[in-house]
Automatic annotation (TrEMBL):
SUPFAM superfamilies named in the record: Acetyl-CoA synthetase-like
Family per similarity comment: Belongs to the ATP-dependent AMP-binding enzyme family.
EC number: 6.2.1.1
AMP-dependent synthetase/ligase domain sequence ranges: 86-466
Domain Acetyl-coenzyme A synthetase N-terminal per the UniProt entry, residue ranges: 23-80
Binding site for Mg(2+): V535, H537, V540
NCBIfam families listed in its UniProt record: Ac_CoA_lig_AcsA, PRK00174.1
Function: Catalyzes the conversion of acetate into acetyl-CoA (AcCoA), an essential intermediate at the junction of anabolic and catabolic pathways. AcsA undergoes a two-step reaction. In the first half reaction, AcsA combines acetate with ATP to form acetyl-adenylate (AcAMP) intermediate. In the second half reaction, it can then transfer the acetyl group from AcAMP to the sulfhydryl group of CoA, forming the product AcCoA.
Record-annotated AMP-binding enzyme C-terminal domain positions: 529-607
InterPro entries: Ac_CoA_lig, ACAS_N, AMP-bd_C, AMP-bd_C_sf, AMP-binding_CS, AMP-dep_synth/lig_dom, ANL_N_sf
UniProt catalytic activity: acetate + ATP + CoA = acetyl-CoA + AMP + diphosphate
Gene symbol of the encoding locus: acs
Protein name: Acetyl-coenzyme A synthetase
Listed transmembrane segments: none
Species whose genome carries this gene: Candidatus Filomicrobium marinum
Length: 650
């Protein structure tokens, strides 16, 4: 645990939207009078038919319903594009930075409007109607934003599938959404390598025996692809046939805006459904206050639009606020590990939002890649995706931000639509590794395994006691699964699936998924805690910790460790790491097994696939499940070959 506290600077207290007193006042009102508070906040959006009802929600397992602004109507695309034209038509809406540093584009709100309208007319000309599901399988190119906004304009429901997913994963998502229209590109480009998106789409349609499909293809690389007559269309050929005039579709606030698939602990991925009014409001509000966005700021979230972070904090939140949002096609270490910081300098980025996995990788590459750049434009840093260990937080703060940029360590989920727990940079002192305090309307609590609420400084299971506007409404075509997954474990509450700790100051610390909690000799500890201790060692770049069956302790601690470049693997170092963890946390946290590895099994979005690590640690790798999303499958072979828990056979 970190005891460092970083107070709010006088400059930040003066310039931020919210100071401590204003946060406390607004938070109290959001809990005491949710209808009044959210009724007022809803006025941020432009409504076609104003709402008279604000909140209509129930967490009762027999009647789970989540409805906000349910008698109002609006159009999401209008709120993100058209309404800004009178005042900011010539302001950049999107800055696109290609994988190749020499490729970029600046797109104004006027240009965005014209391109989205034409894209929407292409969809309509090819039979897409309000309520239809459209699958988007694109790289990080401007057309991904146009496609999403075009769907929103005409009332189609988009289902974005990350461009790194396999044909099989794509097929399952097309089939589950009952989508008849796919938007893809000839190829994608990442880190100087091409990705065969059109071929993957063809393979998905063939494998699933999907009929009556239309495939709209964006030309990205010009690579040769097969086009099926009568099914496949080139976007550039279709655009010349349509006008730039496309009226908006009036949508009820509770009409679906998108489906986004997220992995369940069991079974098929879940189609998370987000709707039009509450989602957009919550994305815009959190974007403004948490990132302290002011007019003229250049804002960059490094996520991919295939994930919810890209939906909420590259597209919908920023554009609803009339912001300038940067879209990045590339990766942090191409062509060098300075790439992020070169982009920051090139576009004079003020707000930078990335994942701990990227921060740790860049930290492992050494400070020189950061120090050779300027970065003086940066004002605020953010972290998303998983708990950030204090060592990486401090490196990010000290080296990247030159000890002058607050860090907003944000906790939220695909299901929550937007950030739920986070610092507000002008209102709260920061503790490295803590998600800090809840956003407006969010009521977190901790319960034990029996559902009893826990008070004070304590560890427990993280629940949310009442609804907020950005919350998912259902699992697509499976409301029973929605109720079962989120509302049956702790009746009357939304169960996040995460564990957390609340400290003496009321700050929240996310300890990771509940299945990432170790129980060693009756002592509970989060894997993130042990990982932080390991990564604090100067020779360690990255670590992942899982439990495995232990004859004496119940669970033993199995550590996968990646060393910094140039460090040698020795028995002495292994012993040193055990001693280091004991010193950091205590003897109870002593690693039982340490396996050194050149890499960890990660998805293409950078998330560590812990279930694979658990299987290998248990010496049971006969069924590793779906590994199609792995960035580098060879890593798994190496881990199996060098596993430390082989069963001894006679």
């Amino acid at each position: 645990m970190s005891e460092n506290v970083y107070p709010v600077s006088p400059e930040w207290a003066a310039r931020a939207w919210l100071d401590e007193a204003k946060y406390k006042e607004m938070y109290k009102r959001s809990i005491d009078d949710p209808n009044g508070f959210w009724g007022e906040m809803g006025q941020r959006l432009d409504w076609i038919k104003p709402y008279t009802k604000v909140k209509n929600t129930s967490y009762d397992p027999h009647d789970v319903r989540i409805r906000w602004y349910e008698d109002g109507s609006l159009n999401v695309c209008y709120n993100c594009v058209d309404r800004h034209l009178p005042t900011r038509a010539d302001q950049n809406a999107i800055i696109w930075e290609g994988d190749d540093p020499t490729e970029d584009e600046q797109i104004t709100y006027r240009q965005l409007h014209e391109r989205v309208c034409k894209f929407a007319n292409v969809l309509k000309a090819n039979g897409v109607k309000k309520g239809d599901r459209v699958t988007i399988y694109l790289p990080m190119i401007p057309e991904a934003a146009y496609a999403m906004l075009a769907c929103a304009r005409i009332g189609a429901i988009h289902s974005v599938v990350f461009g790194g997913f396999s044909p099989d994963s794509l097929m399952n998502r097309i089939a589950d959404a009952d989508s008849k229209f796919v938007i893809t590109s000839d190829e994608g480009v990442r880190g100087g390598r091409t990705i065969p998106l059109k071929k993957n789409t063809d393979d998905a349609i063939t494998a699933g025996n999907l009929s009556d499909m239309k495939v709209l293809v964006v030309r990205r690389t010009g690579g040769a692809v097969d086009m099926v007559p009568g099914r496949d269309l080139w976007l550039h050929e279709e655009l010349v046939k349509v006008s730039a005039d496309c009226p908006i579709e009036e949508m009820n606030a509770e009409d679906p805006l998108f489906i986004l698939y997220t992995s369940g602990s069991t079974g098929q991925p879940k189609g998370v459904v987000h709707t039009s009014g509450g989602y957009l409001l919550f994305a815009g509000l959190t974007h403004q206050y948490i990132f302290d966005y002011h007019d003229g700021d250049i804002y960059w979230c490094t996520a991919d639009v295939g994930w919810v972070t890209g939906h909420s904090y590259i597209i919908y939140g920023p554009l609803s606020n009339g912001a300038t949002t940067l879209m990045f096609e590339g990766v942090p270490n191409y062509p060098t590990a300075s790439r992020f910081w070169h982009v920051v300098d090139k576009w004079q980025v003020n707000i930078f939002y990335t994942a701990p996995t990227a921060i740790r990788a860049l930290m492992g590459a050494g400070d020189d890649f950061v120090n050779r750049t300027d970065r003086s434009s940066l004002r605020l840093l953010g972290s998303v995706g998983e708990p950030i260990n204090p060592e990486a937080w401090i490196w990010y703060y000290r080296v990247v931000g030159n000890s002058r940029c607050p860090i907003v360590d944000t906790w939220w989920q695909t299901e929550t639509g937007g950030i739920l727990i986070s610092p507000l940079p002008g209102a709260m002192a920061l503790k490295p590794g803590s998600a800090t305090l809840p956003f407006f309307g969010v009521q977190p609590a901790l319960v034990d395994e029996h559902g009893n609420e826990l008070e004070g400084a304590v560890n427990g299971n993280l629940i949310i006691k009442d609804s907020w506007p950005g919350q998912m409404r259902t699992v697509f075509r499976d409301h029973d699964r929605f109720v079962q997954t989120y509302f049956s474990t702790y009746k009357g509450n939304y169960f996040t699936g995460d564990g957390a700790r609340r400290d003496e100051d009321g700050y929240w610390w996310i300890t990771g998924r509940v299945d990432d909690v170790l129980n060693v000799s009756g002592h509970r500890m989060g894997t993130a805690e042990v990982e932080s201790a390991l990564v604090a060692h100067p020779k360690v770049s990255e670590a992942a910790v899982v439990g495995y069956p232990h004859a004496i302790k119940g669970q033993g601690i199995y550590c996968y460790v990646t060393l910094n470049a140039g460090e040698a693997v020795t028995d002495e170092l292994k012993a040193e790491l055990v001693k280091h963890v004991r010193a950091e946390i205590g003897p109870i946290a002593s690693p039982d097994l340490i396996q050194f590895s050149g890499g960890l099994p990660k998805t293409r979005s950078g998330k560590i696939m812990r279930r694979i690590l658990r299987k290998i640690a248990e010496d049971d790798f006969s069924n590793l499940g779906d590994t199609s999303t792995l960035a580098d499958p060879l890593v798994v072979e190496d881990l199996i070959g060098n596993r430390q828990n082989r069963k001894v056979t006679g």
